[in-house]
Amino acid sequence: MPELRRDPIVGRWVIIATERARRPQDVGRLREPPRGGLCPFDYAQEDKTPREVYVTGRAPSAPANGPGWKVRVVPNRYPALMIEGELGREPAGIYDRMNGVGAHEVVIETPDHTRDMAHLTDGEVAEVLCAFKARILDLRNDMRFRYILLFKNHGQAAGATLEHSHSQLIALPVTPRQVAEEIEGARRHYEHRERCIFCDIVLQERKDRSRLVLENDDFLVFAPWAPRSPFETWIIPKRHESSFEAEPRERLGLCAAALRSTLLRMGVALGDPAYNFIIHTNPLRDPPSLSYHWHIEVMPALTHVAGFEWGSGFHINPVPPEEAAEFLRLVAT
Amino acid sequence: MPELRRDPIVGRWVIIATERARRPQDVGRLREPPRGGLCPFDYAQEDKTPREVYVTGRAPSAPANGPGWKVRVVPNRYPALMIEGELGREPAGIYDRMNGVGAHEVVIETPDHTRDMAHLTDGEVAEVLCAFKARILDLRNDMRFRYILLFKNHGQAAGATLEHSHSQLIALPVTPRQVAEEIEGARRHYEHRERCIFCDIVLQERKDRSRLVLENDDFLVFAPWAPRSPFETWIIPKRHESSFEAEPRERLGLCAAALRSTLLRMGVALGDPAYNFIIHTNPLRDPPSLSYHWHIEVMPALTHVAGFEWGSGFHINPVPPEEAAEFLRLVAT
């Protein structure tokens, strides 16, 4: 059973996920990448994954866990957290622990082994975002969970272990620190100004335009003022909304178009870099918020996190966001 | 001039260090590694670095910036921050910025191109720690600086761009977040218990022993309860002391022995992994603290930071610290 442990000094939780490694000295060695037709995310390999929890595109008459799907969501075969069990929160001397209870699912974005997310159609990416939403709406019924993080690792340097285009979802029994800090910062701003700080950022970025990458009717894509890594890029709804899963299908379509264009521009400009994206949204049990505002953060994995970043929480970024945005803006797509 | 920018939501500072990159698309490509005798950290190549600010081992009659030294400290040729200038803190619409004022120095640990820190003698590592201390005592006279972070990147995957054994120092005009959070957490613990949390950890680890790697008269080496990455290992003085630079030479000698043995064990156990270490110590302008306790954090770079870690601040660690500690304990050195 994986375990959640709390750092006694700063209160950071860590997942000790023993099921994912074999021997201590093998850590960091990648699992053998799948070859040719043996990829578990291809058609006719559905029995290589746990049974699907969500699927789209397959004819109603076709059997479950067979080919014919467009997007398929399955539990992760090497989950960081386990779906069964009680939280069992307890002390260990001066320390704190609980059972590693949570959900860890894989969203297979396309049956086509050869196309990554940047090369899907806008409609196909929209289907992926709709799958994200559907899984949140289902998992939020499990009252043990407080937060669901959706994320994508593309490329080995960004932590991906399989090449076939997929994203992931982890449902957690605690709200993660990064989200809690954003919520707290946004709450303080709201207290002072009675405005959402994210809405203020949208206004300033649309006026200034130097950090803008693109926009459509509903979404703005921009390089944030203080990016942690080169070409960090945010995708944010222009209209205030605290929860990703509250967005209707049409707006998710415009979000998909903005996301796909961003990934394509990065791919062209930077030579198909490895990247991560994550969705930050309001915690499951919180009411809709006037101060918090969901968004997507995209981060190419171009630089290594080194000692200084580890030790300080300060990031050193050699590319000003104004230059990064201009570079992405000028890409011909 | 590099710039410090503050994230408007969570207050995180980022260094925008344009001098370190050439074109945006070149980010992440390593500088050409030095070949053979042309390493700027070798003897007779002293003119390839900025002029030394500290040196040990050279005969008093020998000229400065020539061979014959044992440890040599020079300004970084590609500094993340610049030593000259005022802070110039100012708003930019809803954002905040200041000039990237600070010191960025390189500690060349040995003239021998072929030996890394794990393969120096205890006495040589002690000389390196004494150089760290001397540089802190000198730089603290510059009242613009609030914190000095000492760190080492060993190996490409840990962000090192030169192979020759060296560590680095960055003096900052603000106290970094990670340190501020530790200080705040320790302060809260002290308020409740009137005890230092680090001293409590030392007591529990010495009693429990399952996470212990080694100890000597003055220092304890252990795997922390909630390690962010596999084989994260801490070196901590057993006697309470808030500042690294307050330690006398003899205790730095015992620290050096503990550090060197730790690095050697990691190298043998894990096949010379890339690693980072950082020193966390009390901020320059704070009085000696009863609640904060300096220490060294060593982190092998075995896993990639992926989307989940970026987005949550949660780390997934496949190796329990009890297994990691046992593994390091049993290494024959």
Polypeptide structure, described:
With 333 residues, chain A is an alpha+beta fold. Chain A folds into two domains: 3-26 and 37-176, HIT family, subunit A (2-Layer Sandwich); 178-329, HIT-like (HIT family, subunit A, 2-Layer Sandwich). Chain A has helices at 122-139, 177-193, 197-208, 249-270, 307-312, 321-329; strands spanning 3-6, 13-16, 54-56, 71-75, 90-92, 95-99, 103-108, 147-154, 166-172, 212-215, 219-222, 233-237, 275-280, 295-300, 315-317. In chain A, the strands form two sheets. Chain A has a ten-stranded antiparallel beta sheet, with helices on both faces. A four-stranded antiparallel beta sheet of chain A has the order 2-1-6-5, with no helix packed on it. In chain A, helix 1 (122-139) packs across helix 4 (249-270). At the A-B interface, strand 1, strand 2, strand 8, strand 9 and helix 2 of A face strand 1, strand 2, strand 8, strand 9 and helix 2 of B. Strand 15 (315-317) of chain A pairs parallel with strand 2 (13-16) of chain B, so a sheet runs across the interface.
